[in-house]
Amino acid sequence: MLPILLDLKIIRIYTIGVFFVLAFFWGAYILWRNIKLTSFKEEDIFDCLFVTLFGALFTARLFFVLLNFEDFGFSILRFILINGFPGLSLTGGLIGGFTTFFIYTYIKKLSVIEISDYATGPLLLALAIGKIGSFFAGSDVGSVTTFLLRVTYIGYEGTRHITALYEAFLFFVGFYIAQKILYRIRREGAPQGSSLNFFLIFYPLTQIILDNFKDNRLYFANLPFDIIAAGIVFIVATGYFTFNNKKNILRESKNLVSRVRKYGKKTPHKKTT
Question: Where are the bilayer-spanning segments (predicted)?
Answer without folding.
Answer: 12-32, 44-67, 87-107, 119-138, 158-178, 190-210, 222-243
